[in-house]
Amino acid sequence: AKDQGWVLSHLYQYQGFWHPSRQLEGVITCQRHFQARDTDIILTTSPKCGTTWLKALAYVVVNRKTNTPTIGATGNNKQNHPLVTNNPHELVPFLELKVYVDHQVPDLTQMPSPRLFSTHLPVDSLPLSIKETGCKVVYLGRDPKDAFISLWHFANKLRPPHGGKISLEEAFDKFCKGVSLCGPFWDHVLSYWNYSLDNPNTVFFLKYEDLKHQPKLHLKKLAEFWGCPFSLEEENNGVVDDILSLCSFEILSNFEVNKFGKLSSGEDNKAFFRKGQVGDSANYLTKEMIHKFDQISLTKFHLSGLNF
Ligand code: A3P
């Protein structure tokens, strides 16, 4: 099935989910060729659920012995950190959007472990080796209403000037019908929720809202899950706080590279930073829209134990 699309190009339905046409070839190549390793870390999300933030955190945590995360008063150390000069999407590449594009099948065997990758693919579309190895998968989910509003803004930012803006009503209608980037949104998140319940040792399900409310607690859990827990000494030296600060919306979005740079795929880095808050959808959605969203969530998540 094909839809005219409201984010990026036309959307095509593949294995039950909607993908932009330019992404489909990457999806298929990655499914065929990606060989996961036990030591890999795979970050999975629906678009606009905090992927950029999770990538920054994972990159800094995993590489903290080589790149000190401190952003001390002088800013000296900060200047040296790769996150200052690279958007997180360049440091942790999407399998289907960056690694396997243009029919490329790069040799990833020389990359040092742990390798960090990300994907928007739903569970059933993941390359088989991800499920067959013991690699660590983290899913970051987000309240559907906030994810939708974030996606709507993102779509309008990326649309070419002559393409016109998509109205909130039209975007809402499509999103609710499941027609959105990697949608249906509810099936995507539910697929990972169930997957995490079945594989608690290799799949970590986290909500954007929880990471926002208790960042320290969840970052410590993530580091442990990734096999690089914080030592007491690190905690006492403020390393966890330094990492959270370096990756915070305020600091990250204000780096020159994120204000003025572009991804190799062409998007402005600043498109990935808007407000970074919980509950912003309340400023946009009507009562009726909220009701409809909540009804869909109730029906889809019924008896699953998942809620936002
Ligand atoms: P909003 O549009 O609600 O502000 P993704 O990275 O998956 O594309 O998600 C983008 C959303 O995450 C945007 O949400 C963006 O502002 C928010 N975001 C980006 N960096 C963040 C950070 N460091 N901390 C919290 N939220 C962040």
UniProtKB/TrEMBL annotation:
Keyword Transferase: yes
Biological process per Gene Ontology, one example term: sulfation
Domain of life: Eukaryota
Keywords: Transferase
Key word Transferase present: yes
Classification via Gene3D superfamilies: P-loop containing nucleotide triphosphate hydrolases
Enzyme Commission code: 2.8.2.-
Enzyme class, first EC level, given as a word: transferase
InterPro entries xref list: P-loop_NTPase (IPR027417), Sulfotransferase_dom (IPR000863)
Gene Ontology molecular function: sulfotransferase activity
GO cellular component, one term: cytoplasm
Domain Sulfotransferase: start-end pairs: 38-304
Family, per entry: Belongs to the sulfotransferase 1 family.
Protein name per the record: Sulfotransferase
Organism of provenance: Spinacia oleracea
Gene name linked to the record: LOC110804800
